[in-house]
Design brief:
Number of helices: 18
Number of domains: 2
Distance between the termini: 11 Å
CATH architecture of the largest domain: 3-Layer(aba) Sandwich
Oligomer: single chain
CATH topology of the largest domain: Rossmann fold
CATH class of the largest domain: Alpha Beta
CATH superfamily of the largest domain: Glucose-6-phosphate isomerase like protein, domain 1
Structural class: alpha/beta
Strand content: 15-25%
Shape: globular
Radius of gyration: 26 Å
Number of strands: 25
Bound molecules: fructose -6-phosphate
Length: 601
């Protein structure tokens, strides 16, 4: 999604803004632009495509000490130079992340007042509205206060005005924005990586707040212009977290961090005793129904969660994609807990589903990675995963950490429901301790998965099959493969194939079968035989020892308790997807058309 950076200080602003934009590249974008004040004038330069195209148009030594920059991920209007931000109208120039929902209404009104527009964006309308209010108010703070009462929708805005060449302003509603402080000057940014090279001290701007930023001072106001005090945060990670640390891609680096991520996430909530689980998850006792709501990979962790919670906790779980849930009739009540899952904590549909449940006075829990994100701030209760900063657009380590949380929840609920007896409980506890080592070993076997990838990467379509929890894992494995390699891939419940899809299987069609559930193993094997008989090239991933010649390739994973098994199962499939994409020379960390944080509907 769009990225914002702004700077005002004692040092030249252009190099800082470009660095900030580069650090935000992981969010996904299709054009970039910058506006700065130099010799009393606002200059705006923007370009379609990568930041490098913009850099070629800039003089990095230009005497400019205040500026704003933007990477745009097209929503209103195609990706081109005219629609790229910043946008200027009258005395104002702004960058914007989000969507002004009432922009059509505002546009009509502004056209009647003599404004005309060059771009197709809602941002240019917002800029014109600010300019129009300013003509009456003649004061920027009063103008922005009024603007927050006029704009509907989501926005984070960085604003400069030629009448105040030494001040930078920001407002936000729903879309994320931080204000950062350094000795050489101050920043606004959509995310922490953008400012980490310069400072690790930042404030979180809350909904409908206004920030005024000068070289030496940052001041915050509420919507009615009452000054507010804010706590400053310190980002503990180093700049290094935003670097690849020797790996060819962020995705590979993040896959390799998963043993540590598992350990960090588990250790935060579990000290090896049932008492720690009781302390952290006792609040779940009162719920008789659970709705899990999320998007993409986070939805897939919900599918695994449903299976585990129903099996061990004996609680019915409804798992839904957030973009559907937010508009559907929900049958929740006071006994229901709505769990939203989100790495970024900013996904628009997930946020909307959360707000819907809150409005209906249903209890909510968020499983989130980004601390202080919108979802984390709104939910009644938050469980943070400890995945750290995830840069690759395709999630891996956050997915695994979300699974770890569902494992802990299921262990606790299984203990409560007595589905898990003491002996089994202690066996699971022992295995949890071994898991980081098992995760590392699974990652370290990457060469065998890469060898399989080398055999299948040229295929036009690849199928995944599985039953029960293995079907949930298939969904994620299939998404991982298609989003980064652009190979068409579908995940099917293994028993459902013969009801239609099996007609697509022909000689050498790769079918990746997952069979870790011992109760369903024989059933899945029958389905493997069905596709094998039709010429499929079968890759089987299982924790069982295979005696007969069932498949063309076999990936053996360690046999652990079913509550933990899907954490191991996904790893070879992440690495397989990675190598298939690499062989196909795809842009692994930034797949086409995708954004890391999907902050629009
Ligand atoms: C796929 C992927 C996406 C996200 C989805 C939700 O690899 O990363 O499917 O899982 O966009 O994002 P979050 O978890 O930030 O809400």
């Amino acid at each position: 999604m769009c990225g914002i950076i702004g700077y005002v200080g004692r040092e030249l602003c252009i190099p800082k803004i470009i660095h900030g934009l580069q650090s935000l590249e992981y969010r996904g974008y299709d054009s970039a632009g910058i506006a700065y004040i130099s010799k009393g004038k606002i200059k705006t330069i923007k370009e379609k495509g990568k930041i490098i195209n913009l850099e070629k148009l800039l003089n990095f030594d230009e005497e400019a000490y205040l500026g704003i920059g933007h990477t745009r991920w097209a929503t209103h209007g195609v990706a081109n130079k005219i629609n790229a931000h910043p946008h200027s109208v009258g005395k104002f120039t702004i960058v914007h992340n989000g969507i002004i929902e009432n922009y059509n209404e505002l546009k009509e009104e502004l056209i009647n007042k003599g404004y005309n527009f060059k771009s197709e964006t809602d941002t240019e309308i917002a800029c014109a509205k600010i300019d129009e209010i300013y003509k009456q108010e003649k004061d920027i703070l009063k103008t922005l206060s009024k603007a927050t009462k006029v704009f509907r929708g989501s926005y984070a805005l960085g604003i400069i005005c030629i009448d105040e060449p030494n001040s930078l302003y920001a407002i936000r509603n729903t879309s994320p924005l931080i204000v950062a402080k350094s000795n050489e000057g101050n920043f606004i940014a959509s995310d922490v990586p953008a400012i980490l090279k310069f400072t690790n001290k930042y404030f979180l701007l809350d909904d409908l707040e206004i920030a005024k930023i000068t070289m030496d001072k940052v001041t915050f106001y509420n919507q009615d212009l009452i000054p507010i005090d804010k706590n400053i945060n310190t980002f503990e990670g180093s700049v290094e977290v935003a670097l690849k640390n020797g790996y060819e891609h962020f995705m590979l680096k993040e896959i390799n961090e998963q043993d540590k991520v598992f350990k960090d996430t588990i250790n935060y909530y579990f000290d090896g005793t049932i008492d720690s689980l009781k302390k952290n998850f006792k609040f779940l006792d009162k719920y008789k129904k659970i709705d899990i709501v999320a998007c993409g990979s986070a939805y897939h962790t919900g599918c695994v969660g449903k299976y585990l919670i129903e099996n061990y906790g004996n609680i019915p779980v409804n798992v839904e994609v957030a973009s559907e849930y937010r508009y559907k009739k929900c049958f929740y009540d006071k006994d229901t807990l709505v769990i939203v899952v989100s790495q970024s904590g900013e996904t628009a549909d997930t946020l909307a589903a959360l707000k819907k449940a809150k409005n209906d006075k249903i209890d909510t829990l968020a499983i989130v990675n980004v601390i202080g994100s919108s979802i984390a701030r709104i939910a009644d209760k938050v469980i943070y995963i400890k995945a750290g900063c995830e840069i690759a657009v395709a999630t891996t380590k956050a997915y695994l950490a979300q699974l770890a949380i569902f494992s802990l929840i299921s262990i606790y609920l299984g203990y409560k429901s007595k589905e898990i007896k003491d002996e089994e409980l202690y066996k699971i506890f022992k295995e949890i301790k071994q898991m980081p080592k098992l995760i590392k070993n699974t990652i370290n076997n990457y060469e065998s998965y890469f060898a399989i990838a080398d055999k299948i990467y040229k295929n036009k379509q690849i199928f995944f099959i599985g039953r029960g929890i293995d079907y949930a894992t298939s969904l994620e494995a299939s998404l991982k493969l298609k989003e980064i390699s652009y190979i068409n891939s579908v995940a099917y419940q293994a028993g459902e194939l013969k009801h239609g899809t099996i007609s697509l299987i022909e000689k050498n069609t790769p079918v990746i079968a997952i069979a870790t559930d011992k109760n369903l193993f024989e059933k899945t094997i029958s389905n493997i035989k069905e596709v094998k008989a039709r010429g499929a090239y079968v890759i089987l991933i299982s924790n069982e020892v295979i005696k007969e010649q069932l498949c063309d390739e076999f990936i053996k994973i360690d046999d652990v308790h079913p509550i933990l098994e899907s954490i191991l199962t996904i790893i070879p499939l992440q690495l397989l997807a990675y190598k298939v994409a690499k062989n196909n020379k795809c842009d692994i960390d930034k797949p086409r058309n995708l954004a890391k944080s999907v902050t629009v509907e």
